[in-house]
Amino acid sequence: MTGPATLFIDGQWVPAADGGTRDIHCPADGTLVATVSEATADDTVRAIGAARRAFDAGEWSSRPAAERGDLLIAVADQLTERADAFARAESLDTGKRFVESQIDMADIAACFRYFGKLAAQDAGRLVDAGSPDVLSRIRYEPVGVCGLISPWNYPLLQAAWKIAPALAAGNTFVLKPSELTPHTAIMIIELLTEVGVPAGVANLVLGAGPVAGAPLSEHEDVDLVSFTGGLATGKIIAASAAATVKKVALELGGKNPNVIFADADFDAAVDNALNAAFVHSGQVCSAGARLVVEESIHDRFVDELVRRAEQIRLGGPFDEAAETGPLISTAHRDKVTGYVEQAVADGAVLRCGGRWGEGDLAVGSYYLPTVLDGVRRGSAAVTDEAFGPVVTVETFGSEDEAVEIANDTRYGLAGAVWSSDAGRCQRVAQRLRHGTIWINDFHPYLPQAEWGGFGQSGIGRELGPTGLDEYREAKHIYHNL
Ligand code: NAD
Predict the structure, then answer these.
(1) Domains identified in the chain and CATH numbers
(2) In sequence order, which residues have a C-beta less than 8 Å from that of residue 425 and are 6 or more positions away?
(3) Atom of ligand 1 nearest to the CA of 253
(4) Which residues are catalytic?
């Protein structure tokens, strides 16, 4: 039995051992994009074996860090050159607007470039042992074999945040992207091979999480598992990784507050709140899904938000007039539908949306931008991630109350504060228990700045110097001279 050779194990493109396949459909119109291999758990175990052998051989990890860095910079250059081909593949898998995928590709190239340069700077660290007879130093070494598991909303971006630091630090890896969005993972592995990453260092398995992904948290030959995805899956992975005391990095969900004070620039705040909540149809871990608005401007703010939300044009990835796209699947659309129905049953006021796309949009998994006002504190609408184009509205009367509401979540990924009072912005930003705080903005991030969550939004950080440290062991060498 053979299927398409889209798994990459030990430097070879191979089909799944049992010939299993999966059809990939574009969520914008349901068309078949391609058929790829569906790995079995045994395929993943073989990939882990290849990564283990490549790591133990030491050829990759013992290269000068600057040489590994040069290779990552070559990846960045090629990604820039081929950005449109990558963006097209990403848009077909996700339904995301092509222009958004193009932005993602620029960010991905920047990520490879950043870690490429950071790798080159690694010289370890000297420690003052307090004696002229002792030379004490810290040497940074790779963790070993990394299992990298990524989601479907930013398929290559989330994978790149793991691949680039893992390689920069000298690790080998097995990547398992979301089963729904495999194409840019295939393309990046081709590119890594092309620029000279040795066989066995970068491996790829495609398929369902509980089958193809599970060995990456279970197997004793994996030293680190880095996962981006939902909270429920993160708990399963952390529990399973505990059996072999792997290092675990988790980037999970968010329920991110967007706090608007009455003295904020009204038009900019409304404009930005729409983008925060509805870009990529809200399928963003850091989406501004909870508006926390000062009472005195509530009516005016929500009226304008609703008026503008009703005008947002939905469409497929290559529809240039579209402002946002479909949800990833009809199954996900059903989940978002259930979330909104529950919110309304709990007393929320549906101000707009709450419906599937109609007419031309009925063929894809579209859901209209939705505003839920009057949500109750503690209700599922404000505690659970909808991961769709849905924004809830809560109000506050004082700065203290704004902070209390914004921090009233088990998550802690990101949040924003809008005010023309710089002192208040800084005060509130410091009191918010979230990994990224935007002031008078929403969504920008930098490869050189750490990204990650407080609370149940995760463990560890991606990007920035800490993002490289996740993939390194610090070894202390104490030399009695
Ligand atoms: P998911 O948890 O369903 O799946 C994520 C990945 O895990 C997929 O590759 C999936 O196949 C795999 N998986 C599932 N079960 C597994 C198992 N038992 N063992 C190993 N792998 C398994 O998440 P999703 O629906 O793909 O992504 C959406 C979620 O990701 C949202 O909750 C979102 O907030 C989160 N997310 C977080 C960040 C962040 O930076 N914190 C970024 C993007 C997405």
Answers:
(1) 7-252+457-479 (3.40.605.10), 257-439 (3.40.309.10)
(2) 417, 419, 439, 440
(3) 34
(4) 251
